[in-house]
Amino acid sequence: MKLSEEEKKAIVKYRLERAKDTLLDVCVSIQNNRWNNAANRLYYACFYAVMALLINDGYEAHTHTGVKALLGLHYVKNGTINEELNQAYRKMFNLRQTGDYDDLAVITENDVNPLVEPAEKFIAEIENLINRNS
Length: 134
Hints:
The protein is an all-alpha fold. It is built from 5 helices and no strands. Helix 1 packs antiparallel against helix 2, helix 2 (35-56) crosses helix 4 and helix 2 packs parallel to helix 5.
């Protein structure tokens, strides 16, 4: 899909706002001991930020796997995105998958809490990249 520059900027802005709003949902979920929901929201907060970055730079992905692949190829491989933060993003994806699709999985505070700070850093790093490239 070909977007005008104005449309692209609007979508990027919306995705970044959605990432930050979703990160706030994580805090509410944690306060209420809703660990599956917190894991889901952590991943999606980062996913929305990655989508903003990809759209900003003219890349298009149609699946979660495609988003991860483009992130790795265009940003992690060349060192633009820190590998440690990318690994945290991958852990969030796996944890979200487990929580959403494994009926017997139990996600705990110990699974979620170590990922909150990396998620915040990941989103901030992506926002900085977008601002530099805009």
